[in-house]
Write a structure and sequence with these properties.
Length: 346
């Protein structure tokens, strides 16, 4: 495959897509989603939310109970996986341990009956493109985790897919390599121009990679948007809690989300002279995190419901904490600007 004949990405559209596995609630419940051509989309959510099932239905590895899957307006819902124009990168990379990197990449062409010289030439070119040409004869056990991932990427690309599907491809890597490889994935997605659909349970990973984040819960889509929009303006209590960095508070105006870094902690004596104070609290925990100190606070007298607690977290910049330290048991006042609180659906 040369740069000239690398296919561009496709637009994916899911229309009322549903998957039932028998009794009980559906694993995926009539979801509608449009993923734009050439974008990087992350499906995000806790275990059992339906994200992996959705990915497998797009891939053709799982049949849909009802609804439709469209690639560039072509209905692929019932097509075999090999005829869809998609390719999958699995969590374990699923490389054949007895084959070299070259033969792993060439394997799908071998199954299609492409002659040895042609398939190996195409595999060698792809390994060069992912900076693995010099290790073409090594077996998977002789490669690092990052090198195995590049081989898996080359193997997926040899079928010239228009959509690359990634099922938690970074979860088996150590933290340092995970950060390094997500940068590589993003770079390759931009270079290739393909549509990437990436399943992850990591909020940090999704925010680092995605053009579009899709937050799922109990088979439903809770929110779709850019990482900036989803993090800063979660539409529901679930999204605010799952994304982290937010407090869900009950106020006279209703349930709101306030980011942990947008709450000010004031000494009680000083706070009594302030006009913009909102809530009194007691410090229950102090955690040093390097660039900031994370305070856990119990909000004294705060209204508590089944959906909100009196526990509040606040990120205090290290320099601010050094200038005004707090200890467990200190009574303080919490303040935030009105625009820092945004309403949340239950």
């Amino acid at each position: 495959m040369t740069a000239q004949d690398t296919p561009s990405g496709s637009t994916i559209e899911l229309v009322a897509l549903t998957k039932h596995y028998g009794g009980g609630s559906p694993a995926v419940d009539s979801i509608n989603l449009r993923i734009e051509r050439g974008s990087y989309c992350c499906l995000l959510g806790p275990s059992g939310c339906g994200k992996s099932t959705t990915l497998r239905m797009i891939a053709g590895h799982e049949s849909a109970t009802s609804g439709d899957i469209l690639l560039d307006n072509r209905n692929i819902t019932d097509l075999p996986a090999a005829e869809r124009g998609t390719a999958m990168m699995f969590q374990s990379f699923a490389l054949f341990p007895h084959l070299s990197a070259l033969d792993n990449v060439a394997f799908s062409l071998k199954m299609k009956g492409v002659d040895k010289a042609q398939r190996q030439a195409r595999a060698a070119e792809l390994l060069e493109r992912v900076a693995m040409g010099h290790l073409a004869q090594r077996k998977p056990a002789e490669l690092s985790g990052g090198q195995q991932q590049r081989v898996a990427l080359a193997r997926a690309l040899i079928t010239q897919p228009r959509v690359l599907l990634l099922d938690e491809p970074l979860s088996a890597l150590d933290p340092f390599l995970r950060i390094q490889m997500r940068a590589e994935l993003r770079r390759w997605q931009k270079k290739l121009g393909l549509t990437f659909v990436h399943v992850t349970h990591s909020q940090e990973e999704a925010m680092a990679l995605a053009d579009t984040m899709v937050v799922m819960n109990h088979g439903l889509i809770e929110q779709v948007g850019s990482p900036h929009a989803v993090y800063n303006l979660p539409v529901s209590e679930f999204v605010a809690r799952f994304m982290g960095g937010h407090n869900v508070l009950q106020t006279p105006a209703g349930k709101v989300g306030v980011r942990t870094d947008q709450i000010q902690v004031l000494p009680l004596a000083r706070a009594q002279a302030e006009a913009a104070t909102n809530r009194r609290a007691v410090v229950s925990d102090v955690e040093y995190q390097g660039t900031y100190v994370l305070l856990g606070l119990h909000s004294a007298g705060a209204p508590v419901s089944a959906h909100t607690t009196a526990e509040i977290s606040v990120m205090v910049p290290e320099a601010s904490f050094a200038a005004q330290p707090f200890a467990v048991g200190d009574e303080v006042q919490l303040a935030w600007a009105p625009e820092a609180a945004h309403p949340l659906a239950a």
